[in-house]
Amino acid sequence: MVNVIADQPTVPVRRATAGPWRTAWRKLKGDRSAVGAFGVLVVIVIASLAAPLYAQYVSHTDPFATNLNGEIVIGGATQPVLQPSTEGLGLGMTPIGPTWRIGPYLLGADNQGRDVAARLLYGGRDSLLISGAAAVLCLVLATFLGVVSGFFGGIVDVGLSRILDVLWAFPIFLLAISLSIVLIAQSIQIGPFEIRSGSLWLPVFIIGIVYVPYVARPIRGHVLTLMQAEFVTAAIGLGASPWRILLRDIMPNVVTRIIVFVPLILALNMMTESSLSFLSIGVQPPDASWGTIIQDGQGLLYSRPIVALAPGLAIVITVLALNILGDGVRDALDPKSSPRGV
Amino acid sequence: MRPQKAFAALIPGLALLGMTIMSPASNALAAGGKPGGTLRLLANAAAGTADPHINYTLQYFQINYVLYDGLVTYKKAGDKTGFEVVADLAESLPQVENGGKTYVFKLRKGIKFADGSDVTSKDVVASFQRIFKISGPTAGTFYKGIVGADACLKTPATCTLDGGLSVDEAAGTITFNLVQPDAEFLQKLAVPHASILPASAPLKDAGTDPIPGTGPYMIASYDPNKLMKMVRNPHFKEWSKEAQPAGHPDEIDYEFGLTDEAAVTAVENGQADWMFDPPPADRLTELGTKYANQVAVHPLTAMWYAPMNTNLAPFNDIRVRQAVNFAIDRAAIVKLFGGGNLAQPACQILPPGFPSFAPYCPFTANSGEKWSAPDMDKAKQLVAASGTAGQEVTIITEDTTVSKAIGVYLQDVLNQLGYKTSVKPISQNIQFTYIQNTNNKVQISISQWFQDYPAPSNFLQVLFSCASFTPGSDASVNISGFCDKSIDASMADAETATIADPTRGATLWTAIDKAVTDKAPVAVLFTPKRVDFISSRLKNFTFSPQFYWIVSQSWVE
Fold this sequence. Notes:
Number of helices of chain B: 15
Strand content of chain B: 15-25%
Largest sheet of chain B: 5 strands, mixed
Shape of chain A: elongated
Strand order of the largest sheet of chain A: 1-2
Number of strands of chain B: 23
Structural class of chain B: alpha+beta
Oligomer: heterodimer
Mean pLDDT of chain A: 88
Number of strands of chain A: 6
Structural class of chain A: mainly alpha
Mean pLDDT of chain B: 90
Shape of chain B: globular
């Protein structure tokens, strides 16, 4: 009896592949720039989330209440938070500058006598919350529209594409400012949900909407490409149902594209939120965002530039970190690329 | 008016007002060099219509005084005589007859409008009819005493002022007949709302199309988003140095759009010569030290205040309005304006030193005649009694640094009182008209009032009489919509009494000041001082207590 198995030529054993997600994660971990950016973001998020603790236990001030008659003890001497000029004609009041000590007024006060450092942390919390929530809203809407449009095609595609074209035709900031001006003074009702005037959800809604075409169209294009791919053709040939094709063949490939969009949209949202708040049509006082603090600091550029510089730097660092992380994620999810820094 | 005015000859003590220059600015501002050049003025925003019969802002009153003339005007002088009324288009001050009810003017001959047409008695009659036909903001207050004004106020389109204004062509006289004597009639004729315009002037708001005037300058172009360009009036010939002296600069460019911060920098760098808006708080220290010889500070008879809509919740409840008055820390707000050297806390309608002023403040923690501290406990009690806590309130401010800062402070106060408050800064260009129009449903706002002339009626009657409240109009300076019939009757009594017995009249106005203050249609915040910051090249800066800087009398090197 011939041992067939034993007579077969020996096939070299191939090591099991790690899979696309594990490969991507390995690539991302090897990208030192991305890892550094992620670390910076983690620090910013934790610091922002700790804003109430900072206000209560470190600065001992209410960052939303005016403190025009406040005083602070520095080096044993009591000083007013708003300091009158004693030179020349004796005109003007200047908020106290940075003390550079852990405690009240680390970064000084704004023109309402409020602690800039505490407001900076609260501002970060609101800016991140709005950017994050708007990113979720944008990506969910854009994914739905892009996938439905690309997958079903025909009249559905034509209809949805034209709607996206109309939105696309508006310059982003013109659209965002117009929506803000119209909606900022009144509540809006979306089904059972009411977004009240002055609510943080209003900028979330506005910012979430305006970037939808910029994400939906690439996703639609990607779905159209996938629909022509051999594995989809094979699935159709095997008689797979449209829903199975959508969920098992299309969506997994779309998800990687969406993940790449996340940090980029977050960065764009942060810039947009800051711009709207700077123009008084985003976060409303006394709430703080980095944009509103820059606006507060605009009136103190000559005497206390730190009030505007601090949130400005925070935006720059955060957006830079998001962009670097976005590049890293894109590289990591691209099977043709090799990790940077390796 | 909104951002300012005055007169003094009749009122003792007024000479003490507004005449102190705090800085050594006089040296830099003194005459020198050669008249001429182009003056560059800056403002954050334009002040709306160029129509002198409608515009009611300090910003354009100041300009309209050198563009237009009335039968009489305030003397263009840099001392206390600047409050005096002098003849302008009239040959002399009028003869007053019929127990103070008839004024007879004789029109000067040979004066031309900027379009070359002669100024005639027909233009005078048409101008006063026009004040009513276009529903001017002071038609129902300043000029309601002219015979026939009642009919004009009821049906403006058909206004003739029949019986109130007559012309004798042969004698060249114009006669005004009043329903009753008015001690302030000449002062009312001396403000730009009584400018004499061509009879052909449109019977609607002229907007950005300038109407020809008789002053030494005329508007060559006006774009409220950019520039008002004023050039010499080719038909102007000086007829009275004290009423309308010839202008020195060849051209005056009033540019709009720069922020107050940028405007300060522009003046510092010599790129502009003067800024209308108060310098922002963060630049004051710098101006008071490095540029002290280019700064002039003058006390004003004016107020910054927060009008509360007495016809809208929650401010339709007097307890809420009083609560706001109790809660506001006026000393804190003074800091937002630049400190104690630039403003004084106030809580009654009439400003300190004003005729009929008697210190009074019912809204202070430590009872007394002057405000000393807020009383938040009392304020919270009043709000609790009103049952309005939790309601939404929106504060409308101008988009200037100071106005916004005061709005944010007031928001904090209202939040402490239990309201859900938001702040909406809107362009300085439209804020004043926006908050006047009841259609906009403004609950509370931040505004300023500057005297047109130094009489208590100019604050009390103009801002708080029923006649000053015109629902649905952009020209309803009674922003609070306050209308109290008994106080209105008291004002009428005080007007009458002032003619027969000025002392009694003054006493009555004092009582009215207290009565209106008690009703709290507004929260008076502070009495400001005027800071003028000028370029080093600007010469002959002359500050009139009535006109402020007399633009036409300066020049640049």
